[in-house]
């Protein structure tokens, strides 16, 4: 294979590698970070102490209960806001997130779900049972008498399940193959390069650029997500949830950026023509002192002087 052909093939493979880096990280985060129930509950747990999230939850639940029961929404919102300040609220928060996430993931993985036209629901008993236990432990009066009602609350309509299930299956495949393809293309591009040092530098810089692009995409996605919310009062709560869910993705973008720049700098500094290499060669082999000038021979006497 000629040198020019190897260079062109290496450039194409490295370009594909750098292009797949941010998309592979995004797909892996969605496939393995968002679909794991335990990881999701752990990520969302600190939001129980966020005041914006607590107020948004109290307003949403209070308005929903008031609409269903025909009660005063203002009174119910105040009651739920008072409840979010108790020690039992984090238990209800974690139980609700776990139950909702489990129900949604079960529907996405089961192709038969939603075919009968029924929406994805969650049983309120999965939330009220641990809540009742926590209130009993805290010695709240009459906590043991709280009834456990098996009430189904709709989470997703059946019409949205087909598209969501297809997207989930695509992410499940892409989350594994895109990062693997990026690594394979990068290694192959370096292996076939005529100058592997330059290939390593290009791959490292492309990886850093992919990390920067990923971080920019996360920031842009946050802004677009918050701008699409109709209720501006709940935007701080939505921003807190978005930041919590994308923490791993932002960390991955910074790691890619730092790793790429570090490898590129190390490759450049270790090259034979770098200033560091020249300095090391100068210290190992200092230049010999200059020899004293050789005196010029005396001029031959001319006929007149002789």
From TrEMBL:
Residues 285-306 are annotated as: Disordered. The keyword Membrane applies. The chain crosses the membrane at residues 174-193, 200-220, 252-271. Residues 1-27 form the signal peptide. The lineage of its organism: Bacteria, Bacillati, Actinomycetota, Actinomycetes, Kitasatosporales. Keywords: Membrane, Signal, Transmembrane, Transmembrane helix. Residues 289-306 have a biased composition (Pro residues). This is Integral membrane protein.
């Amino acid at each position: 294979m000629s040198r020019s052909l190897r260079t062109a093939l290496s450039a194409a493979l490295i370009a594909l590698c750098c292009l797949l880096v941010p998309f592979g990280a995004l797909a892996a985060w969605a496939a393995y970070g968002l679909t794991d129930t335990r990881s999701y509950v752990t990520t969302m747990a600190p939001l129980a102490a966020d005041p914006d999230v607590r107020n948004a939850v109290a307003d949403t639940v209070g308005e929903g209960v008031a609409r269903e029961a025909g009660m005063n929404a203002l009174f119910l919102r105040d009651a739920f806001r008072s409840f979010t300040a108790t020690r039992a609220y984090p238990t209800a928060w974690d139980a609700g997130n776990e139950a909702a996430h489990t129900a949604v993931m079960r529907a996405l993985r089961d192709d038969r779900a939603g075919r009968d036209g029924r929406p994805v629901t969650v049983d309120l008993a999965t939330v009220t049972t641990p809540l009742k236990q926590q209130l009993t432990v805290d010695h709240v009066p009459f906590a043991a008498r709280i009834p456990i009602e098996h009430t189904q609350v709709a989470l997703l309509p059946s019409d949205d399940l087909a598209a969501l299930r297809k997207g989930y299956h695509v992410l499940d495949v892409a989350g594994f193959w895109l990062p693997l393809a990026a690594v394979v293309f990068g290694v192959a591009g370096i292996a076939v390069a005529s100058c592997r040092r330059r290939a390593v530098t290009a791959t490292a810089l492309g990886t850093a650029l992919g990390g920067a692009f990923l971080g920019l995409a996360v920031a842009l996605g946050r802004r677009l997500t918050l701008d699409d919310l109709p209720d501006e009062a709940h935007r701080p709560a939505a921003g807190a949830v978005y930041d919590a869910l994308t923490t791993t993705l932002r960390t991955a973008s910074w790691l890619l950026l730092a790793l790429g720049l570090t490898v590129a700098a190390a490759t450049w500094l270790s090259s034979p023509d770098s200033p560091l290499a020249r300095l090391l060669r100068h210290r190992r082999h200092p230049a010999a002192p200059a020899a004293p000038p050789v005196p010029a021979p005396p001029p031959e006497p001319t006929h007149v002087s002789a």
